[in-house]
Design goal:
The chain is mostly helical. About 80% of the residues lie in helices and about 0% in strands. α3 runs antiparallel to α6 and α5 runs antiparallel to α6. The longest helix has 30 residues.
Length: about 260
């Protein structure tokens, strides 16, 4: 099977997996817990069907891709906000600080992406608009993945109740965002000669993440508290909670000013 035919087959398989994931979220009633993730799934399914219908390599395909990329970025940010907001529902001040940090990180990443275009522009890229879009996407996905990893470390450093689904979802999203960032980077630096291989690798890893969400996001996962965390003594746990509550109180007071 030629690479183009294999890529087309993988894309069809991912559309089927995406539809299956949406069905699972509906049947397991997880769409109520993660509405932005569910909305992203609906968007990806509609986008995937549209792009599979349009002739690959034509103007209509390219403009559809470019026009819908910012919508995907917005969903990426909303998914990350949804992830940590649920975990920090009892810590309003820390949640507000996290939203501020995420905004700063994404804004800084977009600014740095302009600087990152300097080495990218040294490559011969025949599609400058796609070149710029993928550079911005790389910066956004990298910043979101690093933010997710950082806030996960924060969660695991304190006795904050975390559901198994939150940990699993965060891990899969981190892998997904880092994969997208790597694909964007190779697209920019190597150019069109890499597209066939990169696209094939991207759809394969995307399929793996879709399957992981299908297999591991379960209704009971919202109730099960993850046990793979440090076993603190009662004194240490109380001290950590006091620190966390003190930090949250300071942040809440600063929000009221």
């Amino acid at each position: 099977m030629q690479s183009a035919e294999l890529l087309h087959a993988w894309r069809l398989a991912n559309i089927a997996l995406q539809a299956w994931l949406l069905l699972c979220l509906l049947r397991r009633r997880l769409y109520r817990v993660r509405p932005f993730f569910f909305g992203y799934g609906v968007f990806v399914l509609a986008r995937g069907i549209t792009l599979i219908i349009l002739p690959y390599g034509r103007n209509a395909y390219g403009w559809t891709y470019v026009a819908t990329e910012p919508i995907a970025w917005l969903f990426y940010v909303l998914i990350v906000v949804e992830l940590y907001s649920a975990a920090l529902s009892s810590y309003r001040g820390i949640a507000a600080l996290s939203r501020w940090l995420l905004s700063v990180i994404v804004a800084a990443a977009l600014m740095l992406s302009l600087a990152s275009l300097i080495p990218d522009l040294s490559s011969s890229h025949p599609f400058p608009i796609i070149h710029a879009v993928t550079a911005a996407g790389r910066a956004i996905c990298t910043s979101l993945a690093l933010f997710l990893l950082g806030i996960t470390v924060f969660f695991l450093s304190y006795p904050i109740p975390l559901s198994r689904n939150t940990i699993i979802h965060s891990a899969i999203c981190s892998v997904y965002f880092l994969t997208l960032a790597a694909a964007y980077f190779v697209h920019n630096v190597v150019g069109p000669s890499s597209w066939a291989v990169v696209n094939l690798a991207l759809v394969a890893i995307t399929g793996a993440t879709l399957l992981a969400w299908i297999l591991f996001l379960r209704p009971e996962g919202e109730r099960i508290i993850v046990e793979h965390r440090p076993q603190w003594s009662p004194e240490t746990e109380e001290e950590l909670l006091n620190r966390l509550n003190a930090l949250n109180s300071v942040l809440v007071r600063s929000l009221r000013k």
